[in-house]
Structure prediction request, 295 residues.
Amino acid sequence: MPLTTPAKAIARALSHLSGMGKKYGIEWWILVAGALIVLAIIFMALFSGAIAPFDPYDQNTGPQLAPPGGEHLMGTDNLQRDVWSRMVHGSQTILRVAVLAAIVSSLCGIILGLISGFSGGILDRVVSLIMDSVYSFPGLILAIAFAAMLGPGVINITLSVAVIYIPTYFRLVRGQTLAIKEELYVEAARAIGASGWTILWRYIFPNVIATTVVVFTLNVADAIMIEAALTYLGLGLPPDIVDWGMDLAMGKRFLPAGHWWLITFPGVMISVLALGFTMLGEGLAEILNPRLLER
Prediction:
């Protein structure tokens, strides 16, 4: 058999992408664009040591408040630190907090939603009441309250952000569980003597987990904005951790003097990363919509 050359592999991949684009339309290209943005920033976070030309804490990289250009692609800050290097290393922090917060909230929300919807009765009413109470609060206000109570730190801000998304997963999974547990195949499983836990994890869980993928990506995008907002307000991460929200907060006082790059680049990076996850989630939501397959 002839060996597959890199050119042929690339041509085959492009042909496949084009075929998917014809099948799903603009939704596919939205998903691809979002995935490319997210993968680019993940790559930047994973290989930050090789990409960043300076240590993000180095206070002797060049002139103070130097504008973008030359060896400082995004300029320097008031402490003579290279802004581009801080953007590269800061991607690790914001991805870690946002993704971990989404994982924690999804695990808690999915488990509670499955148990509550399947069990019913007083347990369902009590858990639903608690989740509805949490859901009724504006997300940022609730995150600010938890962050102020727990204090600064990576774990604390992760928990503060995670709490506000648990009801989202709970409501979604509980609603689907209530519907699926009445299906004929679940009744058949009961008839042959399957236990409640077997029915829950083998018959119901696989049918509700797919829809949470879309919610997960959208929640990561929202968590990025919440994390940056909390750090900007001084309720998130301590100053000794490289973070885009922290750089945004520190750079705002230099804007009246014309040092625009100190807030522009952190703001752009936050917006681009959130946009990437949003596009990824929106693309998945449209592609997983069965009505699109009827075109």
About this structure: The chain has one domain: 83-294. The two ends are 39 Å apart (CA to CA). The mean pLDDT is 85. The CA atoms of residues 278 and 289 lie 17 Å apart.
